[in-house]
Amino acid sequence: EVQLLESGGGVVHPGESLRLSCIDSGFFFTSYAMTWIRQAPGKGLEWVAGISESGDITYYADSVKGRFTISRDNLNNKLFLQLNSLRAEDAALYYCARHTYFDDSSAFDIWGPGTMVTVSS
Amino acid sequence: SSELTQDPAVSVALGQTVRITCQGDSLRSYYASWYQQKPGQAPLLVLYGKNNRPAGIPARFSGSSSGNAASLTITGAQAEDEADYYCNSRDNSANHNYVFGSGTKVTVL
Region A74-102: what's the mean pLDDT? Predict the structure, then answer.
């Protein structure tokens, strides 16, 4: 069974940092682009960042550009998100998801259960 | 960045048909994908591309698109279809970025 599992969430103060991890099992990790998506409590989904299969191309939402860094370790099937200069509005459940490209489209077809980030003074 | 607009909530009688719409300029260039989210669960991909369902998604879920709008239709809604539904597409204004709709709460009566 294909699975993703996030870790690394926690409670931090504004301005502090966290590193989120996501490990896959059951699929060829290096064959897929990956992404992070977040959801603030009671709110909708927000795409945060994406990374190519090899890790050489990365993309960020304007709301996190310059503060968050997405990366991957293809030897160990892991995805990361470094969160710096955290703000209250970054508090959310962070999901990692597999980003699959099809002939005419793409979609986030496998999701982890998420890891919670709380930013509180 | 682009925006995708969805109605906040719709209701449907058990066994009837409901259509959920998503509007945005990016949909003129890119297909939407659709995600179902039940309380306390991660989102689940239910539709992608022109009208494609992942393995295990019932055939009562179908999709269409026209102009700047995309739709997800549930034909013969079941109690287990009660959930939040989000559309998503590539961002028209920023290459390789993506945007989600605000979500539609579907209630099955």
Answer: 96
Answer whether A107 sits within 8 Å of B103, measured CB to CB.
no
Helix (H) or strand (E) holding A7: strand A3-7
Q: Is the pLDDT of residue B95 over 90?
A: no
Nearest CA-CA distance, residue A119 and chain B, Å: 21
Q: Do A47 and B88 touch (CB under 8 A)?
A: yes
Q: Please name the residue that has the structure tokens 């204004």.
A: B93
B108 beta partners: B12
**Is there a contact between B4 and B89 (Cβ–Cβ < 8 Å)?**
yes
pLDDT digits (tens, 9 = 90+) for A24-54: 987 788 889 999 999 999 999 999 999 999 9
Question: Is B102 near chain A, with CB under 8 Å?
Answer: yes
Q: B57 — contact with chain A (CB < 8 Å)? A: no
